[in-house]
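We emphasize that the prediction below concerns an isolated chain of 169 residues; any contacts that depend on oligomerization or on bound cofactors are therefore not represented. The input was used exactly as deposited, without trimming of termini.
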Amino acid sequence: MSCLGVLFALNKWQVDALRAVPRPERPSYIAEGIEEDFFDHHQEDLCQLDKSWDAMHRALTGGTLRFGGSRPLSGVIMGGEVLYGNRAGEEDYIAVLKPPDKVRKTVEAMEKLTDEALRRCYFAIPEADYGFPLSEEDFQYTCAYFRDSLPFWRWAAARGRYVLFTADQ
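Result of the prediction step, given as a token string:
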């Protein structure tokens, strides 16, 4: 699979509909319902992260690729309500939902993070755990996607939206 990450800004009824789907069926529901609809009709409500999400999450959470986290910046990727991905048999897909209050706190923390601080965090990632060489090129790629996602986060926060992070594995 491609390991591409995407953020979606959802309203309450979209979240309620997603939560009503049985957990094993959520990846298909997201791919065939939410993704298709948003990519076809609501591109302003999504933000593509390509493969940057892995390094981004590690840099923002002390180097690990784990769900949750108490830091506000953990909410950028894998912090929040895990809808799919943290149980045995769920290694093929990740879906994590952030409520509007966490979205607002995440934006505030993202706006305070300087590129130099993000650089320090990125180069502190344990390379053996990351599985790829840490490099200036990879940092620039990660930083660019982080900065490019800020308007999306601001838009979602201003409208009281939930943010859903997804990645196929």
